Every structure is written in structure tokens, then in C-alpha cells.
Amino acid sequence: MSPAWFLAALLPTFVSQMLRLQYHDAAGWIFWDYAGRLCALAVLAAIPAARAIAFRREARRLPLWKLGLSVVGITLASIALIGLERPINAALPMTVLGHYPRSTGWLHLVDVTFGPALVAFSEEIMFRRLGREMLRPWLGDRALMVLATSLMFGAYHWWAGPAAMTGAAICGLFLMVLYQRSGALWPVVLAHYLVDLYFFA
User: Fold this and answer.
1) Measuring CA to CA, which residue among 101, 111, 73, 84 is closest to residue 201?
2) Of the N and C termini of the chain, which has fewer Cβ atoms inside 10 Å?
3) By C-alpha distance, which of 197, 178, 192 is closest to 58?
4) Rounded distance between C-alpha atoms, residue 111 and residue 102, angstroms
5) Using one digit for the tens of pLDDT, what is the confidence trace for 104-151?
6) What was the pLDDT predicted at 90?
7) 1 pLDDT band (50/70/90 cuts)?
């Protein structure tokens, strides 16, 4: 896995983060958020070697009941952890560069159905699957790689302040361990989706 592929896919999401911070209405924010994520996935789909890694099928190694318990446990732990961000951000308001605007009507319906699925899928492809493949040759597939990908995932949430970055990094630890143990990305995407669905809805 070439770091250049990772950076090429990460670039549109970073640009979209910068652009969406200029918007205080839900429509503008959502447009740039979705555009960045879809462009990142398109970049990966356009590079044959990256596509083979990013969109590969993987067989699960755990029985469904263990995956279910893991997904529920990670979802509940992440919701509790991320819930601690609000008082910290309230105490340090200058560190939060943007807030997700509330959507209404049909846009809200799209954003609480399609939005969390796109967020979970794109971020898990980037930070769990590609991040792991990119760092494994240097860091192996153990604690250092888990820590490094989780810190990258936390840093990706830079605009939401240090509390959100810390919460995302810790959630990233849980998600990467689940990915390693399950052997498949879909349970990790599902856990991420459920967490985001809780907060978006």
C-alpha cells in the first residue's frame, strides 16, 4: 500500500473539511462533506492497485454472535466516550473550529440515513483498511500500528477540537482491534455507523 494513494484519497476530504467550515447552513456543509468523501472513494476506485485493497472482500473469522456483541459494546462505549466531549468543548470553546449544523425536512432524512453510512464507510476504508495496509510494513500489525492509525483518525477530526480528537482516537483503537480480530471490515463499518446515527439523529 503506497502512502501516495492514502494521501491522494485524503486530500479531497481535507479540502472539503476546509470548505465546509465556511458554511453555517446544513445544505452547504452537507454538500461539501459528501463531495469530499465521494471524491476520496473515487480516487481509490480510479487507481487499480488501491482499488484492489480498498474494496476487497474479506471473510469474517468470528461467529456472528461474537461480532454482534462486539459491535454493541463498541457502539455503547463510543457513545459514552463521545458524550464527554460536550462539557470539555464548552470549557474550551475556542478550540472548536466548526459545528455540524442541524438539518431539517428532507435534507435531515437524507442526512440521518445516507450520511452516517457514507461517513462510516469512507472513514473505515481510509483509516482502518488503508491505514493498516500502509503502516503494517513499518510498524507490524500489533500495538504500534493500532496506535498510529488511531492517532491519525483522531487528527482527522481536528476541526472539532481536542476533546473530539481524543474521543475519535480512542474509538479508533476499539474499531481497529475489532477489525483485526474479525478479519472483515463490515462489522467495524456497522459499529461506526451506529455511533454516528445516534449523534446525527
Assistant:
1) 111
2) C
3) 178
4) 10
5) 899 999 899 999 999 999 999 999 999 999 999 999 999 999 999 999
6) 75
7) low
CB of 34 closer than 8 Å to CB of 118: yes
Average pLDDT over residues 36-61: 96
Residues 6 or more apart in contact with residue 67 via CB below 8 angstroms: 60, 182, 187
pLDDT mean across residues, the chain:
92
Burial 89-125 (b: 16+ CB within 10 A, else e): beeeeeebebeebebeeeebeebeeebbebbbbbbbb
**Residue-range definition of the domain harbouring residue 121:** 3-200
- 199 — pLDDT class (breaks 50, 70, 90): confident
Total domains present in the chain: 1
The beta strand positions in 9-84, using DSSP E, are none
Residue type, 58: E
Q: Is 26 exposed, middle or buried (0-12, 13-18, 19+ CB in 10 A)?
A: middle
Of 149, 154, 157, the residue nearest 130 (C-alpha)? 149
Amino acid at 147: L
